[in-house]
């Protein structure tokens, strides 16, 4: 049933924006924990005298422990609420940071890192869900992209922490680096206790009175709040005319039970399309190749002929600046240009960037004499442009799109599945990137990524309808609509 667009009032609601910005602190903590470990490992290896295998174990265990957390985070948020799930994630980060900062031995450090990994799994799910459910359609793209912006800020703060705290004593420096997230984690617990719960979760619990109060705070007018409440009630299965403060909602709906069965056993046509679209954007976000660039950029720069360490570090800093700048820019474009167009432009730009990289890399690898400076310069510029194209579309839109298209009853657990797929694909890409370019050369690897991203562009064009400005409760209608090709086929069948 199409209920139209929600009224957006006069502009961005300040209280809704404050709620989302508070929730995105959890994403910044995740970004910091990931980024700071790159530098901290240098000092950990020296003091604790651990092997290279143990170094890789400390670095990789975060995503391994995030996987089971991803699978339970959705159900947890359906059961205890979005707000308390954010608080739970903050508590987990707090414990993990204290353990890592204490770190008297390798086993204790691993326990702390594993604990933080569980916090990552919860953070990846709950920040975009809470942001999407608090936001109005007119500003949902901007607000739901803030977790990704916050994550990139966290990365940069991690690198800054490496630089300044690395000057302290060996015993103290890395421990302070790893303990710092305990401060914002504790602050976030206090902050979230004072902010509101998602109105959509409250309606799922039958708490219409509480949901109405929240909607009055995060809407710009009483009319907008009532319209949003009406649409949410219909989505949950409550009579839109019902005005009781507490309504009985079946336990299965309140706790998210049966969501996995509905998605995978006998999904309806819209749910099937939604699942394909959501999982697809997460898979293509990872296999587009950007993780290989971000993680192994020093080795790539070294491979093309840059040997001086200071130049390597300076080139890598440029990648971080490009990523942060264009991710921030994307947050303002999502609600103006739209998700689908940004993805298509981003994906097309990535194809051209990889093509340029593959040609220049092939020239450098086949150069008989000294590597030509112009080709090295073009590779660096092409990498910056590649990172910019990913950051303005594929990166943030993946999280915005997948967090908004699932119906309310499936949203938390559906996104949990997507994030689990995202993490598994991430591990596969990161663990194989070096082996691949050693086997088929750097130019060959880049050229193969051209083909993968052409496929991604086709997927975005064929399977992703535009969601800009549409109500969360209207997503099943959008994905239930027949495509132009399906309509033509039906007309031809009818004529036959």
TrEMBL record:
<feature type="transmembrane region" description="Helical">
    <location>
        <begin position="12"/>
        <end position="33"/>
    </location>
</feature>
<feature type="domain" description="Major facilitator superfamily (MFS) profile">
    <location>
        <begin position="19"/>
        <end position="468"/>
    </location>
</feature>
<feature type="transmembrane region" description="Helical">
    <location>
        <begin position="376"/>
        <end position="402"/>
    </location>
</feature>
<dbReference type="InterPro" id="IPR020846">
    <property type="entry name" value="MFS_dom"/>
</dbReference>
<feature type="transmembrane region" description="Helical">
    <location>
        <begin position="172"/>
        <end position="196"/>
    </location>
</feature>
<feature type="transmembrane region" description="Helical">
    <location>
        <begin position="84"/>
        <end position="102"/>
    </location>
</feature>
<feature type="transmembrane region" description="Helical">
    <location>
        <begin position="312"/>
        <end position="334"/>
    </location>
</feature>
<feature type="transmembrane region" description="Helical">
    <location>
        <begin position="414"/>
        <end position="434"/>
    </location>
</feature>
<dbReference type="InterPro" id="IPR036259">
    <property type="entry name" value="MFS_trans_sf"/>
</dbReference>
<protein>
    <submittedName>
        <fullName>Probable polyol transporter 3</fullName>
    </submittedName>
</protein>
<dbReference type="Pfam" id="PF00083">
    <property type="entry name" value="Sugar_tr"/>
</dbReference>
<dbReference type="InterPro" id="IPR005828">
    <property type="entry name" value="MFS_sugar_transport-like"/>
</dbReference>
<dbReference type="InterPro" id="IPR003663">
    <property type="entry name" value="Sugar/inositol_transpt"/>
</dbReference>
<keyword id="KW-1133">Transmembrane helix</keyword>
<keyword id="KW-0472">Membrane</keyword>
<keyword id="KW-0813">Transport</keyword>
<feature type="transmembrane region" description="Helical">
    <location>
        <begin position="341"/>
        <end position="364"/>
    </location>
</feature>
<feature type="transmembrane region" description="Helical">
    <location>
        <begin position="142"/>
        <end position="160"/>
    </location>
</feature>
<dbReference type="InterPro" id="IPR050814">
    <property type="entry name" value="Myo-inositol_Transporter"/>
</dbReference>
<dbReference type="GO" id="GO:0016020">
    <property type="term" value="C:membrane"/>
</dbReference>
<feature type="transmembrane region" description="Helical">
    <location>
        <begin position="274"/>
        <end position="297"/>
    </location>
</feature>
<keyword id="KW-0769">Symport</keyword>
<comment type="similarity">
    <text>Belongs to the major facilitator superfamily. Sugar transporter (TC 2.A.1.1) family.</text>
</comment>
<keyword id="KW-0762">Sugar transport</keyword>
<feature type="transmembrane region" description="Helical">
    <location>
        <begin position="440"/>
        <end position="461"/>
    </location>
</feature>
<feature type="transmembrane region" description="Helical">
    <location>
        <begin position="108"/>
        <end position="130"/>
    </location>
</feature>
<dbReference type="InterPro" id="IPR005829">
    <property type="entry name" value="Sugar_transporter_CS"/>
</dbReference>
<dbReference type="GO" id="GO:0015293">
    <property type="term" value="F:symporter activity"/>
</dbReference>
<keyword id="KW-0812">Transmembrane</keyword>
<feature type="transmembrane region" description="Helical">
    <location>
        <begin position="53"/>
        <end position="72"/>
    </location>
</feature>
